[in-house]
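Milestone 3.1: sequence recovery, worked example.
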């Protein structure tokens, strides 16, 4: 695996985005275990973009303005809904009993949707993979799949670390009601800004 690919992927992954913010929010709200679940969900949300890039469907988003705009609008509206929900949900960062069987599917569903509805991720794969895979390579499909899986693995590791560090600060932050309110509103504002940025994004 070329070091150039790893460095490029890490720069993209480490830059805070919706998935990282959601994982951090889960780490602060529910602890390390659920931050890992969120990281897994965000990683799974990459799969459709990976398959689209491998199948060449990502090129449709790059050339079809209507498809791109519909997907980014859906993503922007979903992030807006997330922002409103977080702003209104006073229990988000409040300590509460663990209901793992019910909570895990909800966290994974939100995490997958956050990445699934981001057309920029498909365009990223479309722009990144061809730089490391030669079109005349007889094993190009295997190479693209390998790079994509490596990207997913790095995503899970980085997001899990984000969530783990967030969980370390959880107890201290939750001891202050003012800090809880500030954090909850900050997360809501982040999702709102990222939703607006996505809605205004260009191909």
């Amino acid at each position: 695996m070329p070091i150039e690919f790893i460095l490029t992927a890490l720069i993209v992954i480490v830059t805070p985005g919706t998935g990282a913010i959601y994982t951090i929010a889960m780490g602060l709200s529910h602890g390390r275990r659920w931050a890992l679940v969120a990281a897994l969900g965000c990683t799974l949300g990459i799969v459709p973009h990976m398959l689209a890039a491998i199948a060449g469907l990502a090129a449709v988003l790059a050339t079809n303005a209507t498809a791109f705009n519909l997907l980014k609008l859906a993503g922007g509206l979903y992030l807006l809904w997330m922002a409103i929900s977080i702003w209104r949900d006073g229990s988000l960062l409040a300590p509460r009993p663990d209901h793992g069987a019910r909570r895990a599917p909800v966290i994974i569903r939100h995490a997958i949707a956050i990445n699934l509805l981001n057309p920029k991720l498909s365009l990223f794969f479309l722009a990144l993979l061809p730089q490391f895979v030669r079109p005349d390579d007889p094993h190009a499909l295997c190479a693209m799949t390998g790079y994509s899986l490596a990207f997913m693995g790095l995503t899970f590791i980085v997001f899990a670390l984000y969530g783990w560090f967030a969980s370390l600060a959880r107890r201290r932050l939750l001891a202050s009601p003012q800090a809880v309110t500030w954090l909850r509103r900050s997360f809501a504002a982040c999702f709102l800004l990222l939703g607006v940025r996505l809605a205004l994004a260009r191909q």
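The mean pLDDT is 77. The longest helix spans residues 140-168.
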